[in-house]
Amino acid sequence: MISLTITEAETQLEKILYLAESGEKIILTRAGKPIAQITSIRKERKPFPFDELAEFRTHQMLQAKPTLEDIQAIRQEARY
């Protein structure tokens, strides 16, 4: 969190906007008292639902990799 006076904010607006965009919270003060807050308007990301992914994966069928014989049979079928 960064705290700035209104005068400092007026002279450093571009820098403040860059900091806010990168996720920093900026507090503007007048006579040492906070009067405003500048933050990014980006929505916060929700944590990835790993527990749901684990449940999803348990319901998926496992498929074995094709063996050499399987590949040779597919090639043979494709030739004729």
Question: Can you walk me through this structure?
Answer:
The structure is a single chain. The chain has four helices and three strands; from the N terminus they run E-H-H-E-E-H-H. The model has no long low-confidence stretch (mean pLDDT 86). The N and C termini lie far apart (72 Å). It is of the alpha+beta class and 80 residues long. The protein has a three-stranded mixed β-sheet with strand order 1-2-3. Helices cover 45% and strands 19% of the residues. Strand 2 (26-30) and strand 3 (33-38) form a beta hairpin. It has a domain at 2-38: YefM-like fold (3-Layer(aba) Sandwich).
What is the N-to-C order of secondary-structure elements (H for helix, E for strand)? EHHEEHH
Question: Total strand count, please?
Answer: 3
- Over the alpha carbons, how many angstroms does the gyration radius reach? 29 Å
Give the C-level CATH assignment of the domain at 2-38. Answer: Alpha Beta
Q: Measure the end-to-end span.
A: 72 Å
Biggest β-sheet description: 3 strands, mixed
The proportion of strand residues reads 15-25%
Shape: rod-shaped
Mean pLDDT over the residues:
86
**Major sheet: order of its strands?**
1-2-3
The CATH architecture of the domain at 2-38 can be given as 3-Layer(aba) Sandwich
What is the share of helical residues?
40-55%
Count of helix runs: 4
